[in-house]
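Is this the right way to post C-alpha cells for a design question? Let me know if I should format differently. Anyway, here goes:
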C-alpha cells in the first residue's frame, strides 16, 4: 500500500501562497509518521540542504521538528532504496525522449508524481543499484545512494504533486529491469527490508538498521504516537478532515430543502481552491443538474474559472455500488490517473446496492466498503450526502445507529430564509458541537436575470456580523398563555375567519391544522420562538406539530366549559340529545360551520 501523503496545497499556489512554507513542517511530519525516512533539501531546489547527507534521513518526529523549524521552507527528499523503491525520472523535454518505453512504464505504474519539468514513476523492487542509471533517452532510474523530492516540495515556484496513486506500489517490471542491467548499473543485489548498505560509502548511505518495512501494518510505538501531527482539514471552516493515514469517512445529513448537495459542491470547490484537492463527485442522482447548472454557477459565485477546475474535478454520472468489489475496481481503473483525494457520494442510499442500511451488519459492510474506496485512492476522505431518519434530524441519518457510531465526522444541514446552518455533530480528534453558517447566493437576489439555481457560498464578514448580531426573540410565554379578553377576542376573530372555510363539523385538531395551512404566520411565530438547540434537533414536521399543539391549547382555553364558557363556546357543536343535550361533548369537540350553531351565546 502506498503511504506517500497527499499534497497539501495546489500547484498553482505553491511558492506564492503564504501558507506554503508554514505547511512544510506538517507535511514532513506526515511523511515521517507514515514511516518514510526523509532528509531536508535546498529551499526551491533539489540538492540536499548544506550540512546534510542521506545518512541524516530520519523519521524521528522530534528531529524533524528541529530541522524544519530551523529551515521552514526546506524541500523534502528521500532515498528510494530506503523504502524498497526505484524511481524513474521521465524528462519529457529530452530531444530523443523514449516515448514507447515511457508509455509502457506509465501503464504499469500505480503511483506517478509530477515534477515541474518531469514525471516520477514509482515502482517496488528488492534489487537496488547505486548511482544514476539511464534506462533509455530521457528515462533515468534512481535507487540507492540518490534522492528524489517528495510531493509538496517546490522547485521554480511549482510544487511536486501526486498525479496517479491507486493501490499498492507495483513491482518494477522485469523487462524494464533488463534495460537497467543493460545500462551497466552497479547492482547491489537482493537485501532484507531496511538492511543498512555500506555506511562507509557516502553514496550508499541509507537509514539505520532495524527500521521496519513499510506496509499496511506495523503500528506506532508510544513515542511515535504521541508525536504524531494532528489531523488537518481541506477547508478553513474545518468541516472536511484529512488524516495522515487517510481512511476518513463522514456524513452530511439534511432534510429535503436543506441544500445539502449545494453545501457539498461548495465544500468541494473550497478544497480545490485552497488546498488543491482532487474531487471525485459520484452523483447517483441529479448528475445533469450538478454538471450543467449548479457547478458552473457555484464557480461563478466563488470567482473560479470553470476551466481551471478541470484538473481538480470529476463528476461520475453512472450508477455505482461502492459495496460491490467489481464496481470499486472499475472506479480505481477509471480514475487512477486522476487520483482523487476527496470523494463525495451524493446520495448514499443509491450507492450501496441492495444493502439494508437499517441493520447493523450491512451498516458495517457499508463502512468497510467506504474504507476500501478510500484506500484504493491512496487514503482519500469520503463524504456521504445522506437523508435523515424518519424520526427526524435528532435521530441522525437514515438507517442503523452504527453509521453514526463508526463515522469519523458527521455534519447536519439546516436552512432558514437564505441562511444555511451546518452543525458539526461529530468530529473525531477535532472540535464537534459547533455551528458554521453559509449563505444561499440565490436567496432574495435583486438580479432579475438570476436563474434561480441554488448556490451556497461563504458569508461575507458583514453578513456574518449581521447574522450573529441578530438575536432571536425570546418566547413570550405570558402572551402565548394569555387568556385575557384581548387575547381571546383576537383568537375569536381568527376563528371566525376560518369558520367560513369549513362546511362540516371539524375536530379542534383538524381546525388547528387548517389555520396553519391557511396562514403561515402561526408557523413563523413558532419558528421565531425556537432555541438554537431546537433548530438543530426538531424536524419540520415536529415544528409544525409544536405549532399545532400551541394552537389547540389556545383554542381549548377560548372554548372554556359549560359552567364557564369562553368566547369560542358558541362556535362549538353541542350534544344533540340525551341528558347532555346542549352541552359540550366530553371528547371529540368540533367547530361548527357558521350558521349551524346549536347553542346561543349565554
Amino acid at each position: 500500500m502506498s503511504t506517500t501523503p497527499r499534497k497539501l496545497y495546489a500547484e498553482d499556489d505553491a511558492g506564492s501562497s503564504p501558507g506554503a512554507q508554514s505547511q512544510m513542517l506538517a507535511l514532513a511530519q506526515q511523511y515521517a509518521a507514515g514511516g518514510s525516512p526523509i532528509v531536508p533539501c535546498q529551499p526551491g531546489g533539489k540538492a540536499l540542504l548544506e550540512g546534510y547527507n542521506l545518512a541524516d534521513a530520519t523519521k524521528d518526529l522530534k528531529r524533524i521538528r528541529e530541522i524544519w523549524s530551523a529551515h521552514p521552507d526546506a524541500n523534502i527528499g528521500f532515498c528510494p532504496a530506503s523504502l524498497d523503491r526505484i524511481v524513474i525520472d521521465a524528462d519529457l523535454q529530452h530531444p530523443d525522449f523514449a516515448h514507447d518505453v515511457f508509455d509502457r512504464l506509465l501503464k504499469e505504474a500505480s503511483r506517478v508524481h509530477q515534477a515541474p519539468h518531469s514525471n516520477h514513476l514509482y515502482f517496488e523492487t528488492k534489487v537496488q543499484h547505486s548511482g544514476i542509471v539511464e534506462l533509455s533517452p530521457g528515462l533515468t532510474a534512481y535507487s540507492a545512494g540518490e534522492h528524489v523530492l517528495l510531493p509538496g516540495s517546490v522547485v521554480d515556484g511549482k510544487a511536486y504533486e501526486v498525479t496517479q496513486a491507486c493501490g499498492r506500489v507495483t513491482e518494477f517490471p522485469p523487462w524494464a529491469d533488463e534495460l537497467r542491467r543493460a545500462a551497466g548499473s552497479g547492482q547491489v543485489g537482493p537485501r532484507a527490508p531496511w538492511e543498512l548498505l555500506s555506511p562507509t560509502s557516502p553514496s550508499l548511505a541509507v537509514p539505520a538498521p532495524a527500521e521496519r518495512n513499510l506496509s499496511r501494518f506495523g503500528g506506532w510505538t508510544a513515542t511515535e504516537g504521541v508525536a504524531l501531527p494532528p489531523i488537518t482539514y481541506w477547508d478553513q471552516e474545518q468541516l472536511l478532515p484529512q488524516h495522515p493515514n487517510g481512511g476518513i469517512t463522514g456524513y452530511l445529513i439534511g432534510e429535503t430543502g436543506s441544500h445539502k448537495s449545494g453545501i457539498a459542491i461548495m465544500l468541494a470547490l473550497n478544497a480545490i481552491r485552497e488546498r488543491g484537492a482532487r474531487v471525485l463527485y459520484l452523483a447517483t442522482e441529479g448528475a445533469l443538474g450538478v454538471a450543467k447548472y449548479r457547478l458552473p454557477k457555484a464557480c461563478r459565485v466563488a470567482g473560479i474559472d470553470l476551466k481551471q477546475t478541470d484538473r481538480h474535478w470529476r463528476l461520475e454520472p453512472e450508477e455505482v455500488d461502492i459495496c460491490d468489489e467489481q464496481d470499486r475496481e472499475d472506479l480505481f481503473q477509471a480514475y487512477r490517473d486522476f487520483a482523487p483525494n476527496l470523494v463525495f457520494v451524493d446520495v448514499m442510499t443509491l450507492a450501496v446496492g441492495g444493502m439494508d442500511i437499517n441493520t447493523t451488519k450491512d451498516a458495517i459492510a457499508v463502512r468497510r466498503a467506504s474504507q476500501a474506496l478510500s484506500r484504493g485512492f491512496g487514503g482519500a476522505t469520503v463524504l456521504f450526502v445522506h437523508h435523515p431518519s424518519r424520526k427526524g434530524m435528532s435521530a441522525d441519518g437514515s438507517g442503523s445507529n452504527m453509521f453514526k457510531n463508526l463515522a469519523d465526522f458527521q455534519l447536519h444541514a439546516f436552512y432558514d430564509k437564505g441562511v444555511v446552518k451546518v452543525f458539526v455533530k461529530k468530529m473525531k480528534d477535532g472540535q464537534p458541537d459547533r455551528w458554521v453558517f453559509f449563505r444561499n447566493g440565490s436567496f432574495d437576489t435583486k438580479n432579475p436575470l438570476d436563474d434561480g439555481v441554488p448556490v451556497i457560498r461563504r458569508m461575507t464578514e458583514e453578513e456574518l456580523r449581521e447574522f450573529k448580531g441578530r438575536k432571536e426573540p425570546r418566547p413570550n410565554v405570558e402572551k402565548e398563555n394569555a387568556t385575557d379578553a384581548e387575547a381571546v377576542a383576537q383568537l375569536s376573530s381568527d376563528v371566525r375567519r376560518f369558520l367560513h372555510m369549513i362546511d362540516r363539523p371539524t375536530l379542534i385538531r383538524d381546525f388547528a391544522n387548517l389555520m396553519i395551512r391557511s396562514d403561515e404566520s402561526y408557523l413563523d411565530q413558532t419558528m421565531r420562538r425556537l432555541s438554537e438547540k431546537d433548530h438543530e434537533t426538531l424536524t419540520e414536521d415536529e415544528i409544525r406539530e409544536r405549532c399545532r399543539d400551541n394552537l389547540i391549547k389556545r383554542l381549548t382555553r377560548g372554548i372554556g366549559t359549560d359552567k364557564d364558557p369562553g368566547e369560542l363556546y358558541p362556535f362549538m357543536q353541542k350534544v344533540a340529545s340525551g341528558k347532555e343535550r346542549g352541552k359540550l361533548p366530553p371528547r371529540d369537540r368540533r367547530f361548527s360551520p357558521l350558521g349551524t350553531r346549536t347553542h346561543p351565546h349565554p
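Format looks fine. Someone answered above. Worth noting: Confidence is low (pLDDT under 50) at residues 1-21, 185-215, 472-483, 597-602. The two ends are 86 Å apart (CA to CA).
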